[in-house]
UniProtKB/TrEMBL annotation:
Lineage: Bacteria, Bacillati, Actinomycetota, Actinomycetes, Micromonosporales
Occurrences of domain HTH luxR-type (ranges): 153-218
4-aspartylphosphate: modified positions: D57
GO BP terms: phosphorelay signal transduction system; regulation of DNA-templated transcription
The protein's name in its UniProt record: LuxR family two component transcriptional regulator
Organism from which the protein derives: Couchioplanes caeruleus
Domain Response regulatory stretches: 6-122
Domain of life: Bacteria
InterPro entries for the chain: CheY-like_superfamily, NreC/VraR/RcsB-like_REC, Sig_transdc_resp-reg_C-effctor, Sig_transdc_resp-reg_receiver, Tscrpt_reg_LuxR_C, WalR-like
């Protein structure tokens, strides 16, 4: 994607939406194309305005942000979703990432970091607030159900071909497509093809979900 990043704001607090609109208005490559106060409004607004990214709150009346993200990311050609919220329990973080969000930020994140995160997430690259990253690490390295998650994840990775597994493991280490191409001596388009096949075979939405699966498998 090139040019201006088209953003849909989704938050039930009108003051928060106004603040975000004011803050993001200073970025020349970001345009707020629409706003929503409830997750139920998201599908229609996405169809009408075709945003590149949805900046999504979690707790909203009617349809919450996690449900809205999962519904949206199941659509063909769906925009990326970046969660921006005050809530960061394990359930919220993992729920958002497993639903297909490209990132998870807290509302106390600095304006410049939110702008940078929008640019990163708009192309599908993962972005997490430091506090959220710590919770994710804690989840991967311990907690209840660790063995069951690992067994399930390993079984899913076993569905991949050898080269696809190598690419998945590299994604799990946080490597970019270019880095994977150099590491595995592959052409960049070949790496992109492998990533697309991994997403399709494992019914995943983005690289974040690949990384979560790899981490669970090796927990």
């Amino acid at each position: 994607m090139t040019g201006v990043i088209r953003v849909l704001l989704v938050d039930d607090d009108a003051i928060v939406r106004a603040g975000l609109r004011l803050m993001l208005g200073g970025a020349p490559d970001i345009e707020i194309v629409a706003e929503a106060a409830d997750g139920a409004q998201v599908p229609a607004l996405v169809t009408t305005h075709r945003p590149d990214l949805v900046l999504m709150d979690i707790r909203m009346p009617g349809v919450d942000g996690l449900t809205a993200t999962e519904t949206l990311r199941a659509r063909s050609g769906a925009p990326e979703v970046l969660v921006l919220t005050t809530f960061h329990t394990d359930a919220h973080v993992l729920g958002a990432l497993r639903a297909g969000a490209a990132g998870f930020l807290l509302k106390d994140t600095s304006p410049q970091d939110i702008v940078a995160a929008i640019r990163t997430a708009s192309v599908g690259d993962p972005v997490l607030s430091p506090a959220v990253a710590r919770r994710l690490i804690e989840h991967v390295t311990g907690g209840s159900g660790k063995e069951a998650r690992a067994a399930t994840a390993r079984a899913r990775l076993a569905l991949l071909g050898e080269r696809e597994r190598e690419v998945a493991l590299a994604v799990g280490r946080g490597h970019s497509n270019a880095e994977i191409a150099r590491e595995l001596h592959l052409a960049l388009p070949t790496v992109k093809t492998h990533v697309s096949r991994i997403l399709t075979r494992l019914d995943l939405n983005n690289r974040v979900q690949i990384a979560l699966l790899v981490h669970d498998a090796h927990a």
